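Format notes (please read before filing issues)

Several people have asked whether sequences and structure tokens are stored in separate files. They are not. Every record keeps both together, in the order shown below: the sequence lines, then the token lines. Line labels are part of the format and must not be stripped during preprocessing.
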Amino acid sequence: MNKYPNVPPALDRLFPSNPVFFVTICTYQRRALLATDAVNDAFVRFSRRAYEEHGIAVGRYVIMPDHIHLFICGPNDFELGRWIGMLKQCLEKALAATASPAGRRLQKIWQRRFFDHVLRNEESYAQKWNYVRDNPVRADFVENADDWPFAGEIIPIDRI
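Then the structure lines:
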């Protein structure tokens, strides 16, 4: 039975329960705020806690100065927008804790929305990850993607 009555039945096969999302979150006016140890540590702690307490798995991720790419999969009742909102709040606190008094007064940290795309198969995940992991190389921050300290994998998403 189609659990979404207004969605054509064929979409149940394309978007199974627990889909994997590719998400991009950007800072307001693309300000370079994020590529720090404090933000990376807060991101990893938040993501591990989400998995331990709610079964929300953040797979691979890359934190760039002005945006974050991540792959995420949650249980059937997972609300991506709500989770992203909580992540943004967590990272704002990490930024405020390490900022100068003037930096703590930053009024707007994030773009209002985020970009998400449902991955449909292994090839899509591999292609997206290869592109994402090379972001620091294309930006001339490092020569080798493995040298970028603000990237990794938190929970292997093994079904893709």
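For reference, the curators noted about this record: The helical segments are 10-14, 37-54, 80-98, 122-133, 135-138. Confidence is low (pLDDT under 50) at residues 1-15.
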